[in-house]
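Throughout this review, each integer encodes one residue's backbone shape. One record appears below.

===
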Amino acid sequence: MSKTNLLNTSRGASIDQQDRKRTGMPITSNDRTPVSAKATSQRTYIKAICEVLDQHPSGLEKEQVLEEVGRHRAEWFPDRSFETVRAGLHSTFSVQAKSKDPKIW
């Protein structure tokens, strides 16, 4: 049994992990820092944006990126509706625009 599986079993789970499970907080593999679902989702959207931009090295406008990700939605986001993906992408674009990190587009 892997360390992660052992940690997630009721016999091997620590009190902290049991509390996190009960309260709905994510349990991370190192169990030190909870992972924000929003941050994880934004990383997923950023990966999709980067994938599209890798396929189009000359660059694309924001709407073109949205269309390209929409075309691959069933493959990249099978559990999310088109509207959910589009809203997530818009949110990711707006967060990145306010960020001091280097722009990816």
Residues 37-98 form one domain. The two ends are 43 Å apart (CA to CA). The CA atoms of residues 53 and 81 lie 22 Å apart. The helical segments are 3-8, 15-23, 37-55, 62-71, 73-76, 82-98.
